[in-house]
Amino acid sequence: GEHGRESTVLERQLFADVLKIDVSAIEFLARLDHLDRSYAEGLIATWNEEIERVLNLSHYWQQDDLFRLRLNYKRGVIYFEITDKTGAVYTFRERSSGLRYFLSYYVQAKALERAVRKGNCIILMDEPDSYLSSIGQRNLLAVFESLVSADTSQRNTQLVYTTHSPF
């Protein structure tokens, strides 16, 4: 379905463009025999450390400083899960649409960081804040500000977005 295609694109962006994990490594992991479970778990642990380091989600999703996006692996299937301050583990579908939209824009912004470092860039977005609370909108604005900051883009990136939000 449409949701499945969007999810696959984001997963590909996260693995390839943000984490720099080659698709062949993911395919290799999916083919591992169940007897190689310790190797698979070690690889997943390494990737989770990289997710934590590169994304630094708790810096931007300020509603929950224990919010984490993690990979898990069971029987040849790699999947994402979310943990939060309650200690519970969630799938994407079990979380609010606002959080899912925030993660979507955040992953896309992280994937764009390399492009904005290379040269002039104009980013256009149509109401990226539609499903976010006022706090979520502030969190997303912080992501956008980091994307166009002098440290990231050397002042050669412009981001234009539409909004109906008073925030």
Describe the structure.
Helices cover 53% and strands 17% of the residues. The chain has helices spanning 2-18, 23-31, 37-55, 57-60, 97-118, 134-147, 150-153, and strands at residues 68-74, 77-83, 89-90, 121-126, 157-162. The relative contact order is 0.11.
* Biggest sheet architecture: 3 strands, antiparallel
Q: Oligomer, anyone?
A: single chain
Strand proportion, as a percent range, falls in 15-25%
Mean pLDDT: 81
Terminal residue distance:
33 Å
Low-pLDDT stretches: none
Order of helices and strands: HHHHEEEHEHHE
Share of helix among residues? 40-55%
**Major sheet: arrangement of strands:** 1-2-3
How does the helix and strand content classify structurally?
Answer: alpha+beta
Q: What's the shape?
A: globular
**How many helices?**
7
Total strands: the figure is 5
What integer value in Å does the Rg equal? 17 Å
Describe the secondary-structure layout.
Blueprint (H helix, E strand, L loop, with lengths): L1 H17 L4 H9 L5 H19 L1 H4 L7 E7 L2 E7 L5 E2 L6 H22 L2 E6 L7 H14 L2 H4 L3 E6 L5
Parallel strand pairs: 4-5
Antiparallel strand pairs: 1-2, 2-3
Helix pairs in contact: 1-5, 5-6
